[in-house]
Amino acid sequence: xxxxxxxxxxxxxxxxxxxxxxxxxxxxxxxxxxxxxxxxxxxxxxxxxxxxxxxxxxxxxxxxxxxxxxxxxxxxxxxxxxxxxxxxxxxxxxxxxxxxxxxxxxxxxxxxxxxxxxxxxxxxxxxxxxxxxxxxxxxxxxxxxxxxxxxxxxxxxxxxxxxxxxxxxxxxxxxxxxxxxxxxxxxxxxxxxxxxxxxxxxxxxxxxxxxxxxxxxxxxxxxxxxxxxxxxxxxxxxxxxxxxxxxxxxxxxxxxxxxxxx
Length: 262
Ligand SMILES: [Zn+2]
What we know:
The protein is of the alpha/beta class. The chain is 52% helix and 10% strand. The N and C termini lie far apart (82 Å). The relative contact order is 0.11.
């Protein structure tokens, strides 16, 4: 008798468990269907500031809008983490067409793909502390422009930058090669020392503007490509308090007439 009761209880439990599984799988299927419909809609694209990737690759002005849109998603907590799946890995095995080159600080709080909500193959990134460039960095940018046909270069500084703070504080007896970073940032500190406000954040902005101008003047490749309108070089600052990227107005004015090349 006891055995029979136990068997009945066991069967009932099994039924409950399997019913639960069916309900769960039905719900998952229904959720998946809903998600597919929503993700395909133009309303969803507008709400998530989606900008066409091919257009961003062809036109650096649209590239800026794509970065702005991705950063808005990041700030609003609605990142979509695009192109980070197995099919994208497969698709990219034969080559890459990043729509932007980012010259950024090494700071761990500024992970470029995350703050711009982009995926594999989207951003060609050069990172050093204080985004200070040297010959190897310049060569990397030229490679991106000439070989990968990337038409947008963004110099991305950030608030509370340790390298810029070091240039403001000018500590004595700096060890190793760190002095190289400080020396490169010192001119921006000198230009902003008279300004009110946070001396580091002021120098961060000026450092980005100076670096943009250096790249625009850099012979033999970037300067020619820039003045003929084939590429854009602009600057931006990431705010580590808010997650927001501000494209600097000073670097968006008087841009050369765009020349779109396929
Ligand atoms: Zn930094």
